[in-house]
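= Protein in question =
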Amino acid sequence: MSNSRSSLSPSRVPAGFHEYEADRQFATTLARGLELLRCFTPDLPVLGNKELSRRLGLPTATISRLTYTLMCMGYLAQTESYGKYRLGSAVLSLGYPLLQLFKVRRQARPLMLELAEETGSSVSIGIRDRLSIVYIEAIRASAHGMYPLDVGTTHSLAGTAIGRAYLMACLPKERDALLNQLRVKSPEEWTLHGEKLMRNLTQYARTGCCVSVGEIHPDVQAVAVPLGRIDRSEVAAINCSFQGLALDETWLREKIAPKLTALARRIM
């Protein structure tokens, strides 16, 4: 009887972490709190307990305890709307020391700015955050771009040039594992971008770069190359992206990629 109730009970670990269900070392409450913080995004900066409950699949009472604790610790702050929260300043304080560990940012920044101004592009360095790419440095030649491009913003691993270049920077075994995770854990991403992703990876030996042309945003195109392992042995990639120009994959590969490759060599 107890086994029957156990089989019907909801998972205690957050979605995407089911392999840790029976792991007694895995701190479920901590994992839930961290996943709760990840619910807040630029598009959803303010959330209430009911919304968080729906997103995380947890009882409202559990969410209430988590939000109260996180608010007491400064990771959440209450808004003027009753029962609504936004991220607190402690989240920013938590991330800053990590960024400071990436010394490559200081070395790369003037070189990235030089290329951005020469080409009228945005130049960014990214590392992996689960099945996304997060920027640790970003230089924009113009302030008029519509789409988010800043340190800390996350982007598709499968659908972006920088995500594909990241995969090419990985060892073959690491790359295969990530591709399998994309298929299993992000089936929608794989359906949208898997075919072009695999074509990019196949072409890399000949072209030495990866591209994404109008795949995420219809007026954005980008080319990217691997950086290899940077500070803390993190795998990284660098891209050069353009918004509002006529889409031209050949131009990206033949004119922009060599400049980006030269920049990557100077950084590393």
